[in-house]
Amino acid sequence: MLAYTVYSEAGGVGKTTLAANLAKAEVRQGRDVLVVDLDTQEASLSHLLDVGDDRNNDQADSLLRHMIDRPRGDFHDLIKTSEGIDVVPSHNILEYASKHLRRREEEAADFGESWNPNKQLLRVLREAGVHEQYDTLIVDPPATADIKLHNAIHATRHLVIPFEPSGKGYESVQGLGQLVSGLEDSLGIEVGVLAVVPNRYKGMNDQDRFLEELRNDGWKLPIRLRERSSLFEGCWAEQCSAYRYIDEYRDREREHELDTLQKLDDLAEHIRNVQVVEA
Amino acid sequence: MKQGSTDDPFADDPEDEDSDQSSSDTEPVVNTSDSLDSPDSPPSPDELTSTSQRQSLPYIHSRDGVKDGRIQRPIFLREHIEEGIDDLVDQMEDEFGEDVYKTDVTEAAMAVAQEHPDLVSQTLDEWGYGWD
Question: Which InterPro entries match (chain A) (predicted)?
Answer without folding.
Answer: AAA_dom, DNA_Partitioning_ATPase, P-loop_NTPase
